[in-house]
């Protein structure tokens, strides 16, 4: 009788832990968070494409830090806004951002990937191409929404002869 009870208990536990059609349930919170981060990265790219400073700044936490190549860190949403208000008057950017991995760590997440970009000067029409890699740290706010917290990228292309 004891063996029958153990077998029945095990069957009950397996039935309760499986999803529809006997499938093991997926961590739906993780899937939702990963999709939200992918959507956030798409909004980031949309902010560049539309040259809409408010859309662009909205993806960043108030205390975000952007660490651009060959320049000082841009700290906080006010500095990010001021920098890109100026940048959007001088340049336009076509960029493709490809995430290779997103790792969720509670209310933080880390993602890395690659990018390709074309920057066009609005003053003389010159274009420059770039490709490289990036790493981002995201923070989940009290509203449940994700924002960029730390953002850094660098080029795979060699420096030109006139750069240090």
Description:
This protein is 37% helix and 38% strand. It is α+β, with helices and mostly antiparallel strands. The protein has a single domain, classed as Roll (Nuclear Transport Factor 2, Chain: A), CATH 3.10.450. Strands 2-1-6-5-4-3 form a 6-stranded mixed β-sheet. The model is unreliable at 4-25 (pLDDT under 50).
Task: Specify Rg, calculated over alpha carbons.
Answer: 22 Å
Which residues sit in consecutive blocks of at least 5 with pLDDT less than 50? 4-25
CATH class placement: Alpha Beta
Q: What is the total tally of β strands? A: 6
| Domain module tally | 1
Give the oligomeric state of the chains in this entry, treating copies of one chain as homo and distinct chains as hetero. single chain
* CATH topology (fold) name: Nuclear Transport Factor 2, Chain: A
Fraction of residues in β-strands:
35-45%
Mean pLDDT: 86
What is the number of helices?
4
Distance between the termini: 81 Å
Overall shape: it is globular
The helix-strand sequence is HHHEEHEEEE
Structural class: alpha+beta
Helix content: 25-40%
């Amino acid at each position: 009788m004891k063996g029958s009870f153990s077998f029945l208990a095990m069957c009950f536990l397996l039935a309760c832990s499986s999803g529809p059609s006997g499938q093991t349930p997926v961590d739906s919170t993780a899937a939702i968070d990963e999709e939200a981060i992918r959507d956030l990265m798409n909004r980031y790219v949309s902010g560049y494409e539309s040259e809409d400073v408010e859309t662009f700044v909205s993806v960043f936490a108030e205390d975000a830090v952007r660490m651009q190549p060959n320049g000082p860190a841009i700290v906080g949403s006010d500095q990010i806004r001021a920098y890109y208000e100026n940048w959007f008057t001088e340049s336009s950017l076509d960029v493709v951002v490809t995430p290779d991995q997103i790792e969720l760590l509670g209310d933080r997440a880390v993602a890395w990937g690659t990018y390709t970009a074309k920057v066009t000067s609005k003053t003389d029409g010159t274009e420059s191409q770039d490709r490289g890699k990036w790493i981002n740290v995201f923070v989940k706010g009290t509203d449940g929404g994700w924002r960029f917290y730390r953002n850094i990228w660098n080029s795979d292309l060699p420096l030109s002869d006139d750069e240090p």
